[in-house]
Amino acid sequence: xxxxxxxxxxxxxxxxxxxxxxxxxxxxxxxxxxxxxxxxxxxxxxxxxxxxxxxxxxxxxxxxxxxxxxxxxxxxxxxx
Length: 80
What we know:
The protein is an all-alpha fold. The protein has a domain at 18-30 and 42-80. Helix content is 74%, strand content 0%. The chain is built from 2 helices and no strands. It starts with 6 loop residues before the first helix and ends in a 5-residue tail after the last helix.
C-alpha cells in the first residue's frame, strides 16, 4: 500500500527539518564557543589569531549556508 503525503504533512515535515537543522547549527556554534584553543604554551600568538580568523570566516559561511538551506526548505515545502 502506497502512502501519500498531504500538503499539511509536507509542511509539518519541512518545519521539523528546519528545526532540526537550526538545532544542529546552534549546537555547533555553542561547541566552538565553549571549547576554543588552549592557553598559549609558546609565543605563537599569530597562529592563534589566524586560527580564529579562519574559524570565524568558516563559521559565518556555515551559518549563512544553513539559513539559505532552511529558507529553501521552507519556501518549497508545499511542493510535491
